[in-house]
Amino acid sequence: SPAGWEHWLLGFRGGGRLSPPLTSPGPPGSRAGCCPRGWLRFGDSCYWFSGKQKTWEESNLYCKAQNSHLVVINTQDEQLYIQQQTVPWYTWIGLSNRSGRWQWVDGSVYTMDWRAGQPDESDGHGLGGGEDCVYLHDDGLWNNAQCSRRYRWVCEEELKEHEMQPPLGQGGW
């Protein structure tokens, strides 16, 4: 929570130890757990936002290599959170039509938050093939594009519950 991070920052400014909290509590009713270093927590998921650009497939493979997946947007709150982190950059999400029907990378059912007039199957881009992959446009709404375009991306992983262990070789806290 912001209050937890403010407490950590105040402790650091006051000469405290530079070590962020091990857990970042979510909203009431969410699971306890930790996100990997460099990932951000929202609800019961952890998110990693790229600063570079890759194709949809390269982005998907990158997330898989991190034991995660391209972001699957399940709620309006999650959509707004992702928008806050990504606008104004074009950013791949885990929705595609590569199998002939619109489907999330985790197989879950999708809801629509398309830009007006989308999805379309424009082939005027000169890249060959249809527009089978979905990204967040600079306004944060969904748009479909040719999968070989290079955009930023977001990886998501479900929050993992970790048992707190003493540091190795320390014999305890």
UniProtKB/TrEMBL annotation:
SUPFAM superfamilies: C-type lectin-like. Residues 42-156 form the C-type lectin domain. Keywords: Disulfide bond, Lectin. GO terms for molecular function: carbohydrate binding. InterPro entries: C-type_lectin-like (IPR001304), C-type_lectin-like/link_sf (IPR016186), C-type_lectin/snaclec_domain (IPR050111), C-type_lectin_CS (IPR018378), CD209-like_CTLD (IPR033989), CTDL_fold (IPR016187). Pfam families: Lectin_C. This is Asialoglycoprotein receptor 1. It comes from Chrysemys picta bellii (Western painted turtle). The gene is ASGR1.
